[in-house]
Amino acid sequence: MSREPRLPWLARWLVRLSPVPRESRAEVQADLHELYVNRRRDRGPIHAWWRLGHDVASLWRQPRTIVDSRASPTKFAMLRDAGSDLRFAARLFARQPVVLALTVLGLSLGLGVATAAFGVINAATLRGEGLADPDRAPGVLRTTARSTSTTWTTDEFVQLRDGAARIALEAVLTENAATGQSPADAAAPSVGVAFVSGGFFAATGGRVMLGRPLVAADEQQTGTPAAVVSFVFWSARLHRDPAVIGRRIRIGRADATIVGVAERGFTLPHSRQIWMPLTAHGAVFGGASGRRAPAAGLQIFGRLLPDATLSDAQAQLTAVAAALPRSSGESALGVRLDSRAGLGRAPLSDTVAVTVFVFAVIVLVLVLACANVATALVSTAIAREREIGVRAALGASRARIVRQLVTESVALSTIAAAIGLLLAWWALPAIGAWIEAPAGSDLAPDGNVFLFLALVTTAAGVGAGLAPAWHGRGVDLATPLKGSDAHQDRVAPRRLRSALVMMQAAAAVMLIVTATLFVRASLRAAVIDVGFDADGLYAVSPGIGDPFDSTGDGADVLNFWARAVDELDTIPGIAATTLSQVTPFSGITMTSLTRDEPPRAIALHRTHANYFDAMGIRLLAGRTFTPDEVATGAPVALVSAALARAYWQDDSPLGKMLPPEIPLSTARPVVVGVVSDAITAALHERSPFALYEPLAPRDQRMSEMLIRVAPGSTGAIELAGERLRAIDPGADVAIASVASRLRGETGRPRTLALLTGGVGVIAIVLCVIGLYGLTASVVGQRTREMGVRIALGAAPRDLLRLLVLDSLRPVVIGLALGAGAALLAGRVAAATMLFGVSPRDPVAFAGASLLLLGAAALAVLLPIRRAAAIDAAVVLRRG
Amino acid sequence: MSRDLVDISVKGERLGEFEEFTLLAVRALGDRTYAVPIQQYVENATARRVSVGAIYAALARLEQKGFLRSTMSEAVAQRGGKSKRVYSVTPSGLRTARDLHRVRDRIWSEIAAGGRS
């Protein structure tokens, strides 16, 4: 009995995959097996295997011979054609590696920047915060006859929740609290904490990836409160430790036990990083006051029960609310359910400006990158007119030729997208830091970002591939075959490519001018004289009391300040302390706009007499406040020198009433002194107008302390912090360096300068790449014309001038357009960020123009020098 | 596009070098031979490594040009009951091979007469 001959299974499997038709497979396998057996017998198994591999591979190398070419096209024919298109593209690119590398580089830069920028927008606005089915999770608004508000007291919430029959009500209160590994962690950063009622996770649809969510029992539990941390917090602060459940962390002034880690993407509401039970609020902020929910300030939302409608639930809740106790003078309470006021629906207005800016950058960079690839492809297409003519002559349809071009550019853009994604991945954290993204936001690319990249890549690929097809529209494809040069003199394609280069030049100039303005602004900001010495100056906020409790008399704060002054006086190295309602660059300003035309912004200060010593502001005339004036809040004032000049010119303002142009809410004070100018807020406005009034004791509740540390002393401010915390263990003392606040203020234009400057450099690189490609191809096409000119007596110098002028014309036009756009952009930015640098700053415009022209001239000169050196006789003979 | 180009070369009536070897191998092995002996014959005769895929390709092209004809053989016990496609040279194939041979001979004799061989 003969044994059935069998090929090794791998070879059999490969034969099945090969283009061998089904009916011939058995025969081919038998042949292969026979060869294999013979070779193993003659030369051994290794040789037999080696040759079998070759034979099997050869079935692919010669597919057309086994597939009957007259058979009807299969559904894979199109794919096979795409495969051959790709192979052709690969061979074509291999012949022009430099053009390929430059084009891919340009496109990957563009795609990378666009993806990174989209990633930021995605994280900031598009992704949402993980609220399931938001239409059935309305916000609960508190209405009275006169007002509508979003916040409720805790008592109201509890009664509403108990009375609600058609909706499950939950409450949330957002706060920021210092969170560290241990109680001793004094430098613990502040993170966003949400205090939530027990059913919060169930109602929002929030899930955990480790441990468990918060439940109703956590609200009642005494002892160490439970906490759920966000994915971002777990990643950044807990190093993705899988054994984190049960670990203790310090939140505010309480220890908490981690019971769960929320799923990635759940950050409700507003980029929270930690969720704790409502009842933990007291422990986190009150210290000794123990576990209790905050008195007021709760935001309520609900989850409609499965069969309930919004109007049902609202009617039922209104009935419950009507029975709630009301405060004096308030009408009956009502309830409005509003699904647009639910959690996670509030627009993040502060990110809108950044979003618009970033979207503008995306569009600009993508336009640049695509224009670039299109320029390269149009140039290549012109050089390939003959090849395309051959294809057309052999029967290829126009659609088939377009498909070849599109396949090539899609292949290019896919390679570029891969590189771009790597760039974006690397750049996203840096961009997040530049634009000061909130700490809890998750910038890592997600599905949206990948989808965006795929769409943009396809669009860029198809668009760039269609550009050469568009340029070739209406042309007789066979003309190039006839050897005629007529097609080379067509104006249209050159105009298209010039327009593309012009666009790139305009965008590059605009970005570079803007970047230069920002750079100059940041340099200017660094040397702005604020009029006082910010180094060694610290601002202290006491952090006493419930922030929602406005009924107290503030005695605890006054007491704290009185003891603080005594304590700090004994510390060596502290030169001065003072109280002030507003401390420099705290973000809080009190200003009065005058009734002049144009109005002046006057900074209002309420301070003690030693404020000027502590700040380092000089007394130019008159005197400061007396203790009596401070104690009684007398109507006296000091003015800054600039304010005195503005209203009294060269006269002395001493003893005069403040002019009526300055609106004030208090009695009109008499000027008793003039001090030097100081800028303490809104650095970009640089308004030197300031008015100082005495800080009456009743206003001390809301004031902060300024500490001046003597130069050269070390450790004084740390010691001060310890002493202040020792005064009241319930106080959440925060000490901020005024110098670092100032650096933050001057840093803003620097970050924008980095962003626009980086993109501007990319724009110039793209522009130079495009220009080089364009010039090289145009010069190549005009070789014959140059030959004729030389033959007719033109000197190489004339040719050089002609070509350079022709090539640089679109750049110069683009430069003018871009400068115009930059003027507009600068005017917008000047309002907030330019620190007195004029948007028409000649240095910026001249610098950007020179930079672009220089780069463009280089890009143009290289190919042109070669062209000008041609031998007319050779060229004409060839023609 | 590339498909059209290949079709044109396939339809030509000329004989490529490798096709010529294959055609002659079929003739030398006596008619009614199949792919495996042909591959071994060409490999031995040319002292080049020849893949079976290349042989299939050449056989198919020769058949398309009308130089070979093929039939399926009876099942053979030696191949596990699998039948095989056997080839024989057509008169037109034979004529073309001989023409080619004659042309070569004439050229070589001219070279020899010129004393340059």
Structure notes:
The complex is a heterodimer of chains A (879) and B (117). Chain A is of the alpha+beta class. The longest helix of chain A has 44 residues, at 738-781. Residues 63-73, 345-351 and 484-491 of chain A have low confidence and may be disordered. Chain B is mainly alpha-helical. Chain B is built from five helices and two strands; from the N terminus they run ααααββα. Chain B has helices at 2-11, 17-28, 35-46, 52-65, 91-113, and strands at 68-72, 85-89. Chain B has a two-stranded antiparallel sheet with strand order 1-2. Chain B is elongated. The model of chain B is unreliable at 1-11 (pLDDT under 50).
Give a brief outline of the structure.
The complex is a heterodimer of chains A (879) and B (117). Chain A is an alpha+beta fold. In chain A, 52% of the residues lie in helices and 14% in strands.
| C-alpha termini separation of chain A | 77 Å
Strand order of the largest sheet of chain B: 1-2
Total helices of chain B: the number is 5
Low-confidence stretches of chain B: 1-11
User: Which residues of chain A sit in consecutive blocks of at least 5 with pLDDT less than 50?
Assistant: 63-73, 345-351, 484-491
**Main β sheet profile of chain B:** 2 strands, antiparallel
Q: How would you describe the oligomerization state of the chains in this entry? A: heterodimer
Helix content of chain B: 55-70%
Residue share in helices of chain A? 40-55%
Find the count of extended strands of chain B (DSSP E, 2+ residues).
2
Q: Main β-sheet of chain A: number of strands, strand sense, barrel status?
A: 6 strands, mixed, barrel
Mean pLDDT of chain B: 80
Query: Which sequence of SSEs, written as H and E, runs from N to C of chain B?
Result: HHHHEEH
> What number is the mean pLDDT of chain A?
76
User: Which shape of chain A, going by the Cα principal axes?
Assistant: globular
